Amino acid sequence: MSKITEAFKNQKAFIGFLTAGDPSKEKTIEYILAMEKAGADIIEIGIPFSDPIAEGPVIQNANIRALSKGINTDDIFDLVTTVREKSNIPLVFLTYINPVFYYGYEKFFKKCKDVGIDGIVIPDLPYEEKGEISDIAKNYEVDIISLIAPTSKDRIRMIAKDATGFIYLVSSMGVTGVRSEIKTDLNEIISEIKSETDIPVAVGFGINTPEQSKNISKIADGVIVGSAIVKIIEEHGDNARPHIEKYVTAMKNSTII
Fold first, then answer.
1. Percent of the chain clearing pLDDT 90 (strictly above)
2. What total of structural domains would you count in the chain?
3. For residues 178 and 81, what is the distance between their CA atoms, to the nearest angstrom?
4. Mean pLDDT of 234-252
């Protein structure tokens, strides 16, 4: 069982996201540790990219802020190394295939293992092209987190069958961002996934309130929250830590059924 899958054992997992380098490399380290202290079970770290097609305006803007300060992939590996001096929490990168390809698949995943990255989410990597990196990632013990969307339909079982770590279930059509209501029949999708695999299912895209988190935790194994945390960082910048801790604590508590 991978370290990521272990994080779901005997509990509903809360997964928090932030963009590396926003507002700075040093603050990213501080905020990752703050989320862990507040109860997060897994931290998702966004690698800034100029064309983050799955992201809404909040995370797009965070990417722009981070890139404008010159952060690069090696800087992000460095900050993960610093986090690992103080924490053993599962860490997952969220990025796009272009930065990984440009860095070099072998070099990238070896570096992930060296610094302690446990998994990776690549929203623009189709299932049919996953084989391009799956063996390399496996060799370096990095879980490729599979995404399943409301439009996956006939592909759900196919994607679920060889999933590792956890399955990222996209709650709604469109890009990331806060939503007041989630209308997708998540129950039906989760039931189909569970008929194929025992891998945990975490739901993301749009979740931002404790009530939403509590309701989803009743049917899923975990919740993923990104835009709401990134918005806190946008609003409070270098002084976001207490606000992040308060928010993550409330969201984690809501997953305890």
1. 85
2. 1
3. 31
4. 98
